[in-house]
Amino acid sequence: MPIEPSSRSSEDMRRQEEAAAVLRRVQMDSAAIGGSSLAQHDRVETDPDDRIEVLGKRIGRILGGLAVMVILWQLVSVLFAAR
């Protein structure tokens, strides 16, 4: 049973519209994923007038930096102690 040319073109049009919608959703999702999740969270959630929140973020960032330095120091000391 052959498909009529007019129905084929309407099917193609429907598929093209569906594909365009999928591409728009992917583009929106990739834009959200492309940025740093910390930067997005910081941009949305930070209230500069809330001093406790600002202080908590500073403390967290300092402790996070110290933890990274300790881990790197331990890694380097273990690697060079094996030689």
What is this structure's SSE topology?
Elements: H1 5-34, H2 37-45, H3 51-81
Major sheet, described briefly?
none
Q: Globular, elongated, flat, extended or rod-shaped: what is the shape? A: elongated
Q: How are helices and strands ordered from N to C?
A: HHH
- Which regions are unreliable across 5 or more consecutive residues at pLDDT < 50? none
The helix fraction, in percent, is: over 70%
Structural class: mainly alpha
**Radius of gyration, whole Å:** 26 Å
Q: Whole-Å distance between the termini?
A: 77 Å
What does this protein structure show overall?
This protein is mostly helical. The chain has 2 domains: 1-34; 48-83. The chain has helices at residues 5-34, 37-45, 51-81. 0% of the residues are buried. The radius of gyration is 26 Å and the shape is elongated.
Short synopsis of the structure:
With 83 residues, this protein is mainly α.
Keywords for this entry:
83 residues, mainly alpha, 2 domains, 3 helices
